[in-house]
């Protein structure tokens, strides 16, 4: 099964890395290509280490570092609420997304915070969610670290 996961990893991340390197080569002054390559390299490295750690042979007293690599892999997800807070700050007011990408509960919470506090309500709520998830992931990483 390890061979299957490593094959899927190879078929996914090597072409992505090659395409982003080609984008960097064509437009070396564009910083977004470097950011995308950095993101792909980060996710590729963490997922490779997660696969290797999950299939490492266990001794009687050996510890498992799979949770550490999984939390490192999920750590950038804590930036998504901060991005939403920045977009709300740019608009000056929270506008619900009509495409249905958000859940009903999150829209209800953000609209309620805007009604109670004003346009700072959704920003504060998203900042608390982003920083809270960051602290949670860092605490779990500390727990799983050898």
Structural write-up:
It is built from six helices and no strands. It has helices at 2-26, 31-54, 66-74, 80-91, 104-117, 120-144.
Strand content: under 5%
> Cα distance, first to last residue?
26 Å
Residue share in helix = over 70%
The count of DSSP E runs of length 2 or more, i.e. the number of strands, is 0
User: What is the number of domains?
Assistant: 2
Order of helices and strands: HHHHHH
Helix count? 6
Which regions have little confidence, pLDDT < 50, spanning 5+ residues?
Answer: none
In this structure, how is the largest beta sheet organized?
A: none
- Principal-axes geometry comes out as extended
**Estimated radius of gyration:** 20 Å
- Give the class from helix and strand content and strand pairing: mainly alpha
- Let me know the average pLDDT: 82
Structural topology:
Layout: H1 2-26, H2 31-54, H3 66-74, H4 80-91, H5 104-117, H6 120-144
Care to give the gist of this entry?
With 146 residues, the chain is mainly alpha-helical. The protein contains 6 helices and no strands.
Keywords:
146 residues; mainly alpha; 2 domains; 6 helices; 0% strand; extended
